[in-house]
UniProtKB/TrEMBL annotation:
<keyword id="KW-0732">Signal</keyword>
<comment type="subunit">
    <text>Homotrimer.</text>
</comment>
<dbReference type="InterPro" id="IPR011322">
    <property type="entry name" value="N-reg_PII-like_a/b"/>
</dbReference>
<protein>
    <submittedName>
        <fullName>CutA divalent cation tolerance homolog</fullName>
    </submittedName>
</protein>
<dbReference type="GO" id="GO:0005507">
    <property type="term" value="F:copper ion binding"/>
</dbReference>
<comment type="similarity">
    <text>Belongs to the CutA family.</text>
</comment>
<dbReference type="InterPro" id="IPR004323">
    <property type="entry name" value="Ion_tolerance_CutA"/>
</dbReference>
<dbReference type="GO" id="GO:0010038">
    <property type="term" value="P:response to metal ion"/>
</dbReference>
<dbReference type="InterPro" id="IPR015867">
    <property type="entry name" value="N-reg_PII/ATP_PRibTrfase_C"/>
</dbReference>
<dbReference type="Pfam" id="PF03091">
    <property type="entry name" value="CutA1"/>
</dbReference>
Amino acid sequence: MIKTRSSKVPALAEYVRSNHPYEVAEVISLPIDQGNPPYLKWIGDVVPE
């Protein structure tokens, strides 16, 4: 599992497609509507816009 911002998903998907050995690599994006507030703050702090 890779965690990133929604705005970064297209570039991440392209990177995975270019570098993963599988013909069809799984790349999905799931919205987070709730979670542990300290964790959500941390992920927001460590993943740049």
